[in-house]
Each structure stands twice: as structure tokens, then as C-alpha cells.
Amino acid sequence: KLANLALQPAITPELVQGRVHLKCSYSPPPPEPPVQFRVLWSRLSSPGKREQIQQETTPQTFSYVEMDGANLRLGDTVTPPPPAAQVTHPQGIQPPSQTSGLFSYFQFLPESLEIAEDGEEHVLTVLSTVPIACPGQDDSCKITLQLSTEDLGKSSQVPGPPDIVLSACRVDLLPGPCSGGSCAAARVTVTAVTDFAQDGNRVSRLSARPAAPGDALWRAYTPRDVKVTVRDLPTGNCYSFTDPHIITFDGWRYDSHKIGTFLLSRSESRAFEVHVRQWDCGGHRSATACNCGVAAR
Hey, which CATH number is domain 106-231, 2.60.40.10, 3.40.50.150, 3.30.70.270, 3.40.50.1000? Predict the structure, then answer.
């Protein structure tokens, strides 16, 4: 009699002759008698619906299927339909074995962000769960992702400029060994825009699109977007108006009737400052200066 086989199929991505393949491995059978494995590959074409991709009967303890961008694409969930694997032998057939599905795609980590208008940088990692393959481009093999942002606003408001800013407009995923579910990774920082407006909490969307990839596998794929919620914070204001009256960030009020060019405000943490120019506007009766020009960096 054939001993029970504790089949535990595991799906891993591999490069085979420069093409992306998925490999299904299962526990090795006993040496005698010889056995055959019937392996069915399928993908979830819609929730709860499986579409068969490939079927084979093999004495090997593994099976390959190519991610060709047509039958099997990035973003597909690869999962075995019942029966997933059968051990064929004259004495009978062992019960089918199941394996968990494999999501094959670019992934953002974390999948969503909640940040505040405090200037803090938040690291966002984009990774690929399958190897980066560029047939015929071994010297400059990479997948470039173009990043973009969009303000989703609120349901009662018209979307405006994005509430977030990125450290880069594009990132490159370079080929490398797969480890821990990651075959390539890149980082970008996300910062909330300090917009000096009390516009409440807003939601922005960060999207990534492959920029002119040479492989159909990547060309037809749209990665999942990242939702970024920006928490509105009160911002300070300073003023210089009329002849001129000045109110500082902390509410101190005074007048300045001097004529000349002056430094109105300067940041101690970044390259930002504002200069004002005041000219005589009082005539012969009074010494009064008025704002006539402003320069900001």
C-alpha cells in the first residue's frame, strides 16, 4: 500500500531562462513505488470563480507555469481548484491537497497612510513579489514606476491640489534575489503639504504606473493605489498691512514706519524667507511708510 503523502504545495516565483515563472513544490514521495502527480494550475478570474491555466502529470516533485502576461498576469491570484494535486497509483488515489493562493503584484507597504501637516516624512516602500525580468536588456534591466498624486477631497468639496508631496516622481525596481516575499523594492517618502488653510482632513491618492516597460507582463498591469489621509493642523499666520501694522506669529503687534527693505520672516528649519519693501507714503505732514513690494524664497 502507498503511504499517505503529506502534500503541502508551496508556490514561489522564479526566473527560468530569463522569463518569470511560478514554481509549485510539494513534499517528496517515498522512493518506492514510483508515483505520478497531477497538477492543476488556475487563477481567480473573478471572486469565487477559478479559471484553469495548465494541467500536467509528472513524476517530479515540482511544476512550473509561466507568467506570460496573457493566461497568467500580474495581479492574478494563483490558487488550485479542487482537486489541486493527486497521487496516482494502482492501489488508489490519495485525497487532494490544497495550497494557499499567491498574490503576484507590486505592493505598497504600508497599504494606507494617516499623516498630519507637521512636516514629518513617512517612508513608503514599493515592492514586487515576482522577479524583475527584462529579456535582452541584462545590462540595464529595471522596471520604472511613475508616481502621481491626486486629491480626493471630501464628498461635499471639489477636489483641489494634492495634499501630499513625494520625494521622487519615479522609482526603479532592480532585479535581485527573492527573499521573504520580496523580489525587488524601492522607497519613497511622503509628506503632508502645509497649506495654511483650515480645510479639514483630506484624502489623497498615490498611484504608480509602469513607465514604458518592455515586457508585456508589466505593461498590462496597474498596481493598487495607496490612500493617504492628511489630518489638518492649525497653522500660524503673520501680517504686515497698511502703513504698516505688523502682527507676528505669536500675536505681538507693532508698527514700522521705516523706509527701506526689511526681513519680515525667516524659517530656521528650511530655505524660506520673506522680504518687504516700504516706501514713504505720508508726504510732508507725517513720516509714514507703506508696503510697496514683497519678495519670497
Answer: 2.60.40.10
